[in-house]
Amino acid sequence: MVHPVWHLVRGGNVLVGASTVIVGALMVKTDFSQIDVVLVLLHALCVATFMGAWNAFNDVLDHEVDALNHPERPIPSGDLTLIQAKAIGRAAFLLSIISLLGAMTVAALFSENLSGWLPSIGIWFVAFLLMFHYEMVVPASFMLKHKGLVGNLAISLLVGIVIVFGAAAVNGISSPLVWIVATVAMLVNAAREIVKDIEDEEGDLDRETLPKKIGADGSRAIAQLLIICSFIPIVAPYAREMLPMQLLLLQSPAMLVLISVKPKLYRGEDYSAQRSLRLAMMLGLAGFLASVLYPY
Asked: What is the total count of domains within the chain?
């Protein structure tokens, strides 16, 4: 049985997020120094705890809606109280700040290029602003969660910048490959967020989602367009000789899974489609990782 805290913070997604930081760093270089290793691990911990905090706050704010859409989640199921979930979210957020400050200290004391690391701070604050303007329903917030496609893109931007955050840990924010890989993650995740909104349409009583604005079929069409667009940055690093062209074969599993999503969307199999999109994103990142690690 899954522990309610692990369920609250979406432990599986947190591990994927932390791993994505490492992938971002490896897109820059594969020969890490000891200081690089420490910085990358601190960045991974920073992302993991940030994601855990966001997921906890999300469940706190959405506990009434989750009673309809996701009654198995810790708060509506009674496994955790609202007070406990808030405390977990605050603790995770504090750990994220401590991890970032720890990385800053290590970079200041031991890094040979502190200015190359500094974008990490800006990226963290961008992520914080995205979380605030997505989740918070207050006058100062843009309330992106209630803005349909804009909200989907905001969440997906966060997924993409995790990769850039990993690259920043090793002074590699200017690497074109990093931004291309981040674009792939953003496009595929945007499609997945749209499909998830279709899946949850009946229970999303307090949100103005894309399916509510243009209907499920129109939303599926936009998701399919994003999937098609994702093929361009998947192929681009190989076509532009950033990576050996023959290693494009390593992306075939991801591309095949992306292709398989279309008939699922056509049949209205939204849950299966969004799970396939998650798998495709992970396979795509694995393909890029294998490409940079392959000895050539």
From this structure: 2
Closest-CA residue to 35 (of 115, 103, 116):
103
Q: Structural domain of residue 262, as residue ranges?
A: 175-296
pTM: 0.92
User: Which two structure tokens, joined as six digits, stand for 103?
Assistant: 């990385």
Please tell me whether residue 81 adopts helix, strand or coil conformation: coil
Together in a domain, 130 and 263: no
- 131 near 143, Cβ under 8 Å? no
Instruction: Report CA 35 to chain centroid distance, whole Å.
Output: 26
List pLDDT tens digits, range 173-208.
999 999 999 999 999 999 999 999 998 877 666 678
Q: Is 82 exposed, middle or buried (0-12, 13-18, 19+ CB in 10 A)?
A: exposed
d(CA 173, CA 271): 35
What CA–CA distance (Å, rounded) separates 291 from 294?
5
Residue 288, Cβ density class (10 Å: 0-12 exposed, 13-18 middle, ≥19 buried): buried
